[in-house]
Fold each of these.
Amino acid sequence: MLLFLFVAVLFLPTSVQAHSLLKVGNQGYEVSELQQNLKDMGFFYGPVTGYYGPITERAVMDFQYKSNLSSDGVAGPATFLMLNEVEKMARVVHGEARGESYIGKVAVAAVILNRIDDSAFPDNVGDVIHQTNAFTAVHDGQYNLEPSSYAYRAVFDAMQGWDPTYGSVYYYNPDLATNTWIFTRQSVTKIGNHLFAR
């Protein structure tokens, strides 16, 4: 995951590069947007003010720490990229595992990270989750739902190394799966309604 982030920062998409370097003393819409993102993810407490003070700095540092970034309290390109990646993953987790236990949510996040680390899959979150037919939630629109706080927490737990799937790169509900190919994958474990496989 750290190698992915280093490579990803070298080739930042234009939308991420468009963000200014935000730090203590800055104010405006970009700061409000940052505060709201951090609030949604459980790092920023209090009202969104648009002022980057010590509370925002602390929230950024906490986010950076949980995301395995340098915790300097400055929101730069790597921080904005990671905010975007976490948001994408949380949307998939929420859409795919909304009715599952917490460990089931962490498992879905772990599968995304395992795919990034597997040479048979793309090496970044966006391409992994938008791969054709990879995630039902992306295909059927559940990806557009607002993630729960549990979805964000599950993503951070997976990023910290919790993988209840033991390296699985697939999962499916055996009662609902219609593509017989998935049944050819080696099952690793069952969590809730999902079988996890390699």
Amino acid sequence: MINDYYIYIMTNRKNGVLYTGVTNNLRRRVQEYKEKIKRGTFTSKYNLDQLVYFEIYNDPENAIIREKQIKGGSRQDKINLIEKDNSEWKDLSDDF
């Protein structure tokens, strides 16, 4: 887990608002969203507290490139990514 970088997608419900981000500490970041630590942010405004997708990278540059690729894709591209491995849109942070 040390030196890992994560691309992730958060949502508020199945087929709801989607947010894509990158972090080096996925557990902490998801907890911040769930506890709404940073008020007034996009994630707190839309109550994005469910982790529905993530990828792990060893290199921060590759993680950022991938984040931009996902963000640049269509909403349907993001839904396809999520549903490929998480068809029920389960909150993956429950497994932490």
Amino acid sequence: MKKPIQSKIEYILFLIFYHSTRIWPLPVIKFVAAQVMIFGGMVLGIRKHTAMKNLQMVYPDLSAKDRKKILIGMYKEMGVSSAEVYFGDFNKLYEDVEVEGWENLEKAIAMDKGVIIASCHTGNWELAGRYINRRHKLSVIYKKLRNRYLNDFTYNMRDAEGLIMIEHKKALRQIIKLLKEKYIVTIMIDQNGRKNGVITNFLGHPASTYVGTAKIAIKTQTPIVSAIAIRLPNGKHKFFFEEMILPEGYKNNLQDIKELTERVSAQIEKYILQYPEQWFWVHRRWRGYKKARKAV
């Protein structure tokens, strides 16, 4: 967590903006939020170096101009999605949603073992979670925000929607319990697993990836469905649900866990490559991967 005084000041500034702009039309708030994010990233340089370094690694043949275009698009998406989450009327936002592959999720649910949804930080993933939760019992694994006041504010918003939130450090037993109760459990698999992860291929480069999704699926024989949220050029949302992956035949050893993790990750990666401006390039995804476990 950040220093308490700094966190409180940031939170007060957030509340001032939050309450003073709630009367604005959502399109105006989205525009302002997008410009603030772009300014913070491109002018003030917030995580700009990390994002550009990641883009150069994944897209070595792309021109600096095109990488900059992706970066601006990413900051814009961060602003627009944040505005929708904190200021939007979800009932109205659902009217602008297209869904592809919903039958894949329903098939997995029909197996009556619970479902693990593997997802990533693209588009408005918060809206996607709420969309699923309106139809089925959903739990989400999350990492606490560095600002504890903003973390509590965001947690309460999610809780009000009926989402069951599980802090990732205390997740294992609760996930297994919820799967036994036939819940859908969402895990973001595009984050850096650091020393607790296994070295996998991610967007063509070695990275440390959390093993929880694969390990729990193997242990409980729960189907995995990859779900991705994307914003279309017209501003509407589209949620994709890939064909389920069954953990049958995989054993609880590091090699099999790695193979299953990479198989699931591949379903996610193709969307990141197709919509690069919508993924979190500011995340230090590949940092320190050598500290992770390596499958033989």
